[in-house]
Each structure stands twice: as C-alpha cells, then as structure tokens.
Amino acid sequence: MSTRSTAKRADALRSIDLGHNPDASLSEVARAAGVGRVTLYSHFASRAELVDAAMARAIGQGNAALDHVDLTGDPGLALARLVDASWHLVDRARALLVAAQRELPPGRIRELHDGPAARVETLIARGRAEGAFRTDLSIPWLINVLYSIMKGAADEVRTGNLTPDRAAAHITATVLAAFTPPGKPVPEPGWEE
Amino acid sequence: MSTRSTAKRADALRSIDLGHNPDASLSEVARAAGVGRVTLYSHFASRAELVDAAMARAIGQGNAALDHVDLTGDPGLALARLVDASWHLVDRARALLVAAQRELPPGRIRELHDGPAARVETLIARGRAEGAFRTDLSIPWLINVLYSIMKGAADEVRTGNLTPDRAAAHITATVLAAFTPPGKPVPEPGWEE
C-alpha cells in the first residue's frame, strides 16, 4: 500500500465495476468508471491489486447484507435462506469472481471470504450438533463443498445451462443432500418449478 | 493452426510439463522441458495456446485410462471407482488445471472434457433409471456437481487442507450423498481411515 492513500483508493473503487467482462483491461475499467487511466493507475499498481481491492469491498458489503438473514431454527431451512441470499450476491459479482479466480494467488479468494465463512461455519457446527448435518466429513470440507457447488452454479449460468433464478434452489437441494448424515433420508426439496 | 505442423506441436508437447507451477512462463516451461524458447514459440503462438494443447492432450490420455474402469454393476460403486481413477488424473495434472482455469475462455475446459463427460453421463443416466440417483435435478447439473466437488478437492489439496490420498473418499462420500434421491437414505461411506 505504501504511499497510496486508503481513502483515495476507496473513492476510486466506489465507482469501479468490472461489469460483465472479467477480462476488462485497466483502461476499459477506467473508461467504464468514468475515471482517468492515470487516476486509476495512481491508486492501483496492477490489475491484480484492483481486483483484490474490488473483491474485498464486494465481500465486505455482501457480508454486511448477510447479517440480516435469519439463521435460527431448523438448520436445513436456515442454510436454504443463507444460500438464497448468498447466491444473489455471487450472481451480481460474477464477472468480478471470474477475474479473481484468474488473477489472485491460490488461497487469496478463500482468505477474503473469512468473514462469510465464519457465518457458514457456525451454522454447520450447529446443524451437526443437532444431528441435521453429517459429522463424518470435516467442517472445512463441508464449507468447501458449499462454495464449490455455488461456483459451479455460477459457471452453469455463465455458459447458459442454468437461469440465475433457478440456481439457488439447485444449490440448496444439492448441498442439503451432500450434508445429510449417512443412513438418514435426503430432504425433499421445496421445488417451485 | 495455420502453418504450424500438428506433428511437430505434438513432439514439442510430449516433453512439456507445467510441473508444480501453474504460473510458469513460456521461458520456464521451455527450460523445464529442455526445449529452446524459440522452438516453443514456433509451435505455440501464446501461453494460452500451449495450455489448451497440453490440457487437450492430458484429457485425451486420461480418457483412455478411464476406459479400463469397470462401470458395470451397482451405480454407486461404479461411480466410486470412476471417482477414484479420475481423481488420480486430476491430482497429477493439478498445475495444468490451475493454468487452464486462469487462461482458457469460459466454457473451453468443459468443451475439452466432452469425452470424460459422456462417460459420466452414461453412468448417471443408468443410475437414475435404476433408482439409485436422483431425477429431480438434470444430468448436466449432476455432472457439474461432480466436477465442482472434484475441483474443490484439488483446491483443498493445494492449500494443504486435505491430503491427496484422502481426497477420493471425500469426493465419493459427498457426491453419492448429493446424487441420492430425496426421501432415500444417504449411503454409508466405506471410510478406510
């Protein structure tokens, strides 16, 4: 970060949007944001630094939005509500996610997700304690499964195999089955199709 | 492809390995392969083209190896055998997969997987017909779930959260649960830990 001011970076970021093009160059990002290229370069040393900052900001805002999701009561229903709210955030930030997957070093996306991961972890731990979720696989693995299926849904939407409005129900039905303890029946999904 | 000879490209590719570094530059790839940079550049116009060719080759070889997997009998056990064999291929090609995720256009990795996907599709369709796998989610979605969980396992191995030898069992236990028809019990995994 060195001499670049955090406040100025935040100002620059506020108007920046990768839009629908994860491969947007810094110049294109600057044009779309109505910011001069020189201004943009003065705040971010590289495209990776910009993507990192944009990702951190999007996750921070998303995490704040998830504060309003009711995670009490039946763990399966709570997880369905969390998936529903999270999916809308992922769907809105799809281009940014693709850029982050391409440009950030391994482990960095996960690191940025520490906030939302803590929320998921608490819910999974409660579901395990109440016998709703399986305990024969570790909590970090189950979190990874949820994220992987969500990313997979984003891919399916990008390639046109799934419509965004059906994605949350697909993710929930799949994750609730994956989390079911061996020997217990997979819950019937509440399809609205 | 234009004037570049396919045979010469194949020769160049044979000795090329991204090794453990998905960010290896073309120069580093050339050095590791014992090929001159000029030779490498004469066969591949860009790093993306090299990654695409290396990925196509790895998948072709992997697909041939999967021909020997017995996919008859109980669909769940057949899927476990397929996951086991596929995981070893994914694990060996981890650096290449990361490079492909970063450099190839959306949909290209899936396109390259059309061969292995056809095999999975046949098995899933049989499992559905026999009542072993769920029919309330589409076959393309179930294939995507399998791939996503496999990719997630590769990430977990890369970040040190999972050892490669435990990955196949984790993937199988998770996917078999995800594929279980609603109302039916999740199969007990054959943990060997």
From TrEMBL, chains A, B:
Domain HTH tetR-type: start-end pairs: 1-62
DNA-binding region as annotated in the record: 25-44
Keyword Phosphoprotein assigned: no
PROSITE patterns: HTH_TETR_2
Gene3D superfamilies on file: Tetracycline Repressor, domain 2 (1.10.357.10)
Keyword set, alphabetical order: DNA-binding, Transcription, Transcription regulation
Xref: InterPro entries: Homeodomain-like_sf, HTH-type_TetR-like_transc_reg, HTH_TetR, Tet_transcr_reg_TetR-rel_C_sf
Protein name: TetR/AcrR family transcriptional regulator
Organism: Streptomyces vulcanius
